[in-house]
Amino acid sequence: MNAVRDSDDQAPQPLHDEAWFAARASRGVQGLKAYDPGHDLVAFRRKFGEANLVELGSNENPYGPSPDARAAILDQLHALHRYPDPLGADLKRALATKHGVDTKQILLGNGSHELLMQLAQVFAGSGDDVVFSRYGFAVFALATQAAGANRVVVDALPHDHPHMPLGHDLDAIAAAITPATKLVYLANPNNPTGTWFGRDAFASFMAKVPAHVIVVMDEAYAEMADADADAATALALLASHANLLLTRTFSKAYGLAGLRVGYLIGAPGLVAVMERLRESFNVNGPALAACEAALGDEAHLHWSCERNTEQRTALAAALRARGLRVYPSQTNFVLVHFGARTAQIEADLTARGVVLRPMGGYGLPECLRVTVGNADENRRLLAALDAVLA
Ligand SMILES: *Cc1c(COP(=O)(O)O)cnc(C)c1O
């Protein structure tokens, strides 16, 4: 007879709205807007059916992971009741070997997004400056704001720059550093612009950065950059710059976005401080095993990256042939200028089951970001585009 039941004479509790709770949140979170993941793809899949949908909005890898990664996950199914290795030791060892660094220099994240957020949380707070480029990866602004620090947004290279329109202006970024600067975020190549900078430019940039400023180099697309494109990686400078670190991910070139694994490489001391805030089992068991297996299959990685380069070149040419401006890219997407009719074109494409990423949130409302699909997806995209532009 102890059952709890509704009683008529008890007025329902008024539910407080978002504004009420926001007023009680920390200062940084009060000014925060949640990450915009683009369209609701689950709803689209339900509406169109997966086979009729061309998903080119999230820079996913259409070729998927190495078969070894799938096999490694199946191999883990007997152990789902166990916690994963909190140290991720096997995966770290494989990464250390691959990159020629010590395992103490590696931190694993539930996606590199988690690491980028945690970096600001650990190294920046109220009154501190965090510097990054306009059109830099969206998470840089989110991380800074969430930490309650000041966003110092540096103008990108201009639209009419002869080599790297909208690219990071490394001189201007270096000039924006002050004694209040705690952190600098760079992405090379960058999302959503696709732009990149070279080794010499990066080395002279690092020579100008004071040693007290931590430089984060987000290298989510590093594996996809062509060898002859001269896209700098922070790897070569880690030994000479303790204030430099890089992040990478298994979400893009390795085709494992669904598993959520990224990693950071930096000084052992930096990793040790980051470890203080890491959730103990942040990377799950199947994911650890799959990523280790994926690292072992370099042939699949190279094959996948070669297909991407081939398709990116063809897609960019096909878009340019339609009179569209395509920005330079060393990634698995291209930023495309569609002009004043962008919103309508995007809506028309969506109605046909072709999903791209609108860029209004980045201050580029006349552009769409187009993930490079496989040959079939790109053909369907171009057919839909021809119908919409006609
Ligand atoms: C996709 C992407 C990431 C990676 O995110 P994960 O959380 O590892 O999936 C990080 N940085 C940039 C620039 C990206 O485009």
UniProtKB/TrEMBL annotation:
Molecular-function annotations in GO: histidinol-phosphate transaminase activity
Modification N6-(pyridoxal phosphate)lysine occurs at: K252
Pfam families for the chain: Aminotran_1_2
Cofactors (names): pyridoxal 5'-phosphate
Keyword Chaperone annotated: no
EC number: 2.6.1.9
Source organism, top-level taxon: Bacteria
Functional pathway: Amino-acid biosynthesis; L-histidine biosynthesis; L-histidine from 5-phospho-alpha-D-ribose 1-diphosphate: step 7/9
Domain Aminotransferase class I/classII large: 52-385
Swiss-Prot/TrEMBL keywords: Amino-acid biosynthesis, Aminotransferase, Histidine biosynthesis, Pyridoxal phosphate, Transferase
CDD domains: AAT_like
Reactions mediated catalytically: L-histidinol phosphate + 2-oxoglutarate = 3-(imidazol-4-yl)-2-oxopropyl phosphate + L-glutamate
Family of this protein: Belongs to the class-II pyridoxal-phosphate-dependent aminotransferase family. Histidinol-phosphate aminotransferase subfamily.
Subunit structure: Homodimer.
Alphabetized NCBIfam families for the sequence: hisC (TIGR01141)
Listed name of the protein: Histidinol-phosphate aminotransferase
Organism (species): Lysobacter stagni
